[in-house]
Amino acid sequence: MIFAQTRFAVVAGENRCTLFRINSRRLDCSTSLAMTATMTSRAATLIGLTAILMWSLLAVLTVATGKIPAFQLAAMTFTIGAGVGFLTLIGRGGAIRAMRQQPLAWMVGVGGLFGYHALYFLALRFAPPAEAGLLNYLWPLLIVLFSASLPGERLAPHHILGALLGLAGTVVLFAGNRLASFAPLQLPGLLAAFVAAFVWAAYSVMSRKLKSVPTDAVAGFCLAAALLAALVHGLVEDTAWPQSSPQWLAVAALGIGPVGAAFYAWDIGMKRGDIRVLGAASYATPLLSTLFLVLAGFAEPSANIAIAAVLIAGGGLIAARDLFRQPRRIEMV
Fold this sequence. Notes:
By secondary structure, the protein is mainly alpha-helical. It has helices at residues 31-37, 41-55, 58-64, 70-87, 103-126, 129-136, 139-146, 157-175, 187-209, 218-236, 245-272, 275-281, 284-295, 303-319; strands at residues 8-12, 15-19.
């Protein structure tokens, strides 16, 4: 990548670093931060979309891990996810300084990653999976709506229409699972799923507001989330390790992909990409997840899946209309 003669000043928390032309051989910032200096909105959005693809593998990989308790699995996979991030710091001397962030950045990062998963696990424990999943998947619509509060962002009718079509497709998808009747004892789980949707939407939108926090810092957030998950596991769960090599491989794949690289890709998408497109496109996650479960033999194909596919794909294309226009270049702040 070639930098212009102009000198770029980038603020990351309290740390100030300067980027010069590559042929000057003076690069005081991390390579990843330098790459985002001239990243287009389209490129960042496409990177963010890869997170959605990875998250669609979450269900099938989780099933493949066996009967590992939820918070133990979270601790194991968040640790691997943190390792993925820290490995990228090797050879980039100044990159480790990305861990030195203001308390607000740590509250948003750790609170978003650990808080969302803790609430979602509680939801699945106390409420039927279909209802919990449906309430949880309010977060893509909330991201689209919350994005209106961001500086320079404006909600257009096609963004809202795309998000609503995605929501409709998700309702159709979960309706195929024969939603159970409501029982009062399910209220805590349903409430946890509802709050989880707000937590993830708030984390995603706040990531845009904390644009100066480099993506390298996500490795630290994952490590902190792993420690919290291990603490909760020790308090409320019994330890159960994978019983076979395929189960260990599934744990590793979870940590590298859906609970690892996906968070880094999502962070780039939220900070540099089109947050409204990514919000609406996120409705593809439950659909793709169901399709992968069908391919793996854990679920049966149905007409509901086909109808949901049309609604979600159509909504995603409508919301992403701007993505097919001339890309605009994002400047660092």
